[in-house]
Amino acid sequence: MSKQYRILGVIISLAIGLAILPIKLTSEDLHSGNLFLAARTIRYTFTAGILAFLLHLYLNRTIFAARWIMVEYILRIIVIALIICLTSIVVDAIFNKFVKESSFTIAKEDLNWYLVILRCLLVSTVQFFVVFYLQLVEESQRRRLEIEKLNRSQLEANLSNLKEQMNPHFLFNTLNTLSAITNDVKVKDYVSEIANVYRYMLIHNKLNLVLLESELSFINSYLYIIKTRFGNSLNINIRIDESILPTKIPPLSLQLLLENAIKHNVASLDSPLAIDVYNDSENIIVSNSLLPKKTNYHSTGVGLNNLLNRYQLLFKQDIIIEQNTAVFSVKLPIIKS
């Protein structure tokens, strides 16, 4: 819990302690003045209210299984009530050892065990709900911030793609015209795959998740275009188990990794760039042979950072980036619904 909520909790604790543990003053007590009030406040308000707040704050960091959660909460309230009860008795005993004035001693009714335990249970119960409420407020704020961060990340991705796209209607009309005026089968196939790529980007890019099967179908169209350009300079091998095809993945994730591999490495007939897309039991892995281009080009890392942020926000998981002298690889966690 953040510092501001801890401070607020302490203030509320003091207020609750004063409210539910009233100090009963007699005419003789009034002659004791503020010292008497301070003594009783220290003994009850501090030891009961503050201690109960801090203990609930500490214990509420962990939660047991959902089916036992109510039992756990009740046990916490009882245990903390016993702790603050014993602590109050110890503090009172120490106080009475040094203060002999009868005006400052505990009234007889306060020594009633039932009354003492009842007060401690009441303090513990109220403080439990105070801590629970403050944690709910903090969690709500944290989720709002995560949603805003995800929206910003998605907006940046959309803007980036929009900058690279032509007007979709003009583009598809042009592709249809080109396909109609040519008799070359290869050209028709190339145009068809381009249309598939842009259609996928326009439809799915606004979504947070897509089926891995749909993403791989898109990748096949994307790779057809890339292979047409690079030919045998690229050696791309995709081996994905059918069992994970129904799982979901952020759209364009695989395309981004393939594009990065091609952009940052040399691909030639003498030294073909090898790219492997496969999976193990936990991850989808995209790896490529490391043949860095000898240019002054400096990568900003925006693409990988964007992908990392999306996995953290959507799944609370990190992608794993590994590199050695020969291979660069990125592992995307398999998300099983």
Automatic annotation (TrEMBL):
Q: Which residues form the Signal transduction histidine kinase internal region domain?
A: 157-234
Alphabetical UniProt keywords: Kinase, Membrane, Transferase, Transmembrane, Transmembrane helix
GO MF terms listed in the record are: phosphorelay sensor kinase activity
Annotated Gene Ontology cellular components are: membrane
Q: Which domain of life is it from?
A: Bacteria
Q: Does the keyword DNA-binding apply?
A: no
Identify this protein by name. Histidine kinase
Species per Swiss-Prot/TrEMBL record? Sphingobacterium siyangense
